[in-house]
């Protein structure tokens, strides 16, 4: 899913292969949390100077000054979080996160969200297996608690099998960059996540066309667009044109309320073979 769709109680995995992609996700995650009146803690890579982190979050100017001064936004490290413990243990980290979540509520915020760059594992010389155990047994931090966490893995620094296991261990998996369109084709369904706009229009069209071809015999296709955070008017019209050209094909489109509204404005209600279903997270 796109990072913008994270909500309180989500435990998310994201991987990045270049530093710009990592900055995009953490910046969006941070600003969304501040707008929702949540406390935000950024545990950046130990290899990155703290001033660089602040600059990347606040480009092009000092807009985060007030949040920083009142303590709503904190840039820290895993080493500082578990202090004075000299070594990482899941129990110590869980304890400190629970304490910070409680503190955020006491300070009047709606909850706590953390962005954790996993370079801390090498910095603390932590055992990979112990870290993986923590990641796959942390459900209690999120159950009925206003806590949200992104675990960000630099794919250049972790083995492929570790990345695969951690991808599967997290309930939420994020797109690695803003502006992407992620497509998955399964029997009878096309899943679309991210943004369908001018930059991804051809990819969007191709995905819908392929879905229609795959379901030519059944003549029933589900377009799951509930994970789209943006659907352009052009893509909406493109979808209606494809539906009109496949009038013997029943198409069910699952959309966020905004997507349903855009499709209706484009004329979807005049398409007898297109059924719109509103979906909310």
Automatic annotation (TrEMBL):
InterPro entries for this protein: MEDS_domain, STAS_dom_sf
Pfam hit, one: MEDS
MEDS domain boundaries: 10-171
The protein, known as: MEDS domain-containing protein
């Amino acid at each position: 899913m796109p990072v913008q769709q994270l909500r309180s109680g989500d435990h998310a995995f994201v991987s990045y292969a270049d530093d710009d992609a990592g900055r995009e996700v953490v910046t969006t995650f941070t600003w969304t949390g501040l707008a929702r009146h949540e406390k935000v803690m950024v545990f950046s890579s130990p290899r990155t100077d703290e001033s660089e982190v602040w600059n990347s979050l606040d480009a092009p100017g000092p807009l985060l000054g007030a949040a920083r001064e009142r303590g709503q936004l904190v840039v820290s490290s895993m080493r500082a979080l578990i202090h004075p413990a000299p070594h990482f243990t899941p129990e110590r980290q869980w304890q400190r996160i629970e304490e910070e979540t409680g503190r955020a509520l006491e300070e009047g915020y709606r909850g706590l969200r953390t962005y954790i760059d996993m370079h801390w594992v090498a910095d603390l010389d932590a055992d990979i297996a112990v870290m993986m155990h923590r990641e796959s047994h942390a459900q209690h931090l999120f159950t009925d608690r206003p806590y949200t966490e992104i675990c960000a893995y630099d794919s250049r620094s972790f083995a492929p099998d570790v990345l695969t296991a951690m991808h599967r261990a997290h309930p939420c998996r994020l797109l690695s960059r803003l502006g992407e369109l992620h497509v998955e084709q399964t029997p009878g369904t096309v899943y679309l996540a991210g943004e369908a706009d001018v930059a991804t229009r051809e990819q969007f069209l191709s995905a819908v066309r392929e879905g229609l071809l795959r379901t030519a015999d059944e003549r029933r296709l589900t377009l799951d667009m509930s994970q789209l955070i943006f659907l352009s008017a052009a893509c909406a019209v493109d979808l209606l044109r494809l539906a009109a050209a496949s009038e013997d094909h029943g198409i069910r489109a699952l959309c966020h309320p905004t997507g349903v509204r855009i499709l209706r404005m484009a004329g979807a209600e005049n398409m007898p073979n297109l059924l719109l279903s509103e979906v909310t997270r």
